[in-house]
Amino acid sequence: MDNHQKRNLTFLTIGLIFMLSGIEYAVILPTIWRYLQILEAPPYFLGLGLSAFSLSALLTGPLFGIWSDRSKTTKSIILFSNLFEIAGNFMYFIGYSKWLLLCSRLVAGVGAGAGSSIFGFLTQSTLPEERAGIFAAVMACRQAGLLVGPAFNLFLRLCDFKLGPFVVNKYTSPGIFMCLLWMLLQFVVLAVYWDMPPIGPEGEFIVLELKQEEEKEEEVPLMGSDEEAVRTYRAVNSDQLETSASSVTQTTREDSNPFKNFSVSREFLREEVVVLLTAQFITLFNQTALETMVTPLTQRYFSFGELGNSLMYSLCGVEVIAGFFFVRWLSSKVADRVVLAVGLVICCTACIWCLIFLCKPRGAYEWQLSAFIVGVFLQLLGLPFVAVSQVSLFSKVTAEKTQGFSQGVRRSVGGLATILGPLWAGGLTNHLYIMLGMMLALLVMITVMTVLSYERLVEPRVVQCAQSSDSGG
User: Exposed/middle/buried for 215, CB within 10 Å: 0-12, 13-18, 19+?
Assistant: First the structure.
């Protein structure tokens, strides 16, 4: 099996990981509230349970990122993090008390923190021009999981039996179901996931490229000293890429510290990075706020029940997946910053539409429903544009060798947004002008920031120079 086949299988495995994360959200969310009620939990435990997952992922993401940057591997990190997903979902299945249920979501969230390492790996394993397309496909996999998740609930709700001392019913079955899926994923990762060497600028694996370059000239120290790097490459037979890759990895572990002379302020307080982190926060804040608002809204104005909401979420999932694949195609035609600008314009338009037509619906039922559908359609239409472009741009304007940590910081900012968004919207479902007005103000702010920083939202040549010259100060 050649390295390009291994790379493709590895990317498919990553897609499967993100799909399982979507399925987990989709099978647990519909039942967790009733589950907590059975365990005699107060109402605020629902917010705690949903936020606990994001909180632990927020805290562990940068740690997993540092681990992957130092070790230059992600396979072992994924296998380790999945143990927390397995344990957390098994705790959810046991569910003896509301506190155990809360802890189960905290533990499972630790496993989600490995996403920073995965995005760092994807950054180092893709060319800049193909990166947005790869990110879009991975994000679409999670949306696919959200789409197919409710289908699993159709048979999980029929469960009513005992497994030893444990009761398996429609509330506990999502836990054991996801526990088994994450266990199966462990075998998939072991079998078809490889820690591939980075991709060079010409699409070749960097191990071979460096080997050839070192034989021609010794300009840039890649391993900490030129002599050690030359010795490593020359000692390896040219037809043994895997042996060469492992040698490079071993030498890197011993002699190279990606965080040498690394400065958090120098890396993250640059104008373009601040803009992209702000876009990450506002996008997820608005998205989770709308998710919190939409169910009470449909119940109040349109009398939607479980079936109506399920159908609505399914159609929304189809639109978002289609949007991600459209952005995947579009990103190969235009620059990331153009995609970001288009997405922000669509999001602002959607928010203005909702302010005008949804805060105080007028007209007949059919007109109100049509206005609601258009508003939701526009909100979801802009999401893939902003999500994919800001992730792709972020990977290009931050240093590649510390990409795991940088992606961890980015995901932590997003995790904070997913915690604050529902808290903001939850108390304002009866005050839509305030809620939507704040969301529009945030969107206008990030749009202005993007316009002012538009010239800097490109892949800078300096970043690559910095990566190789950090050791020199």
Answer: exposed
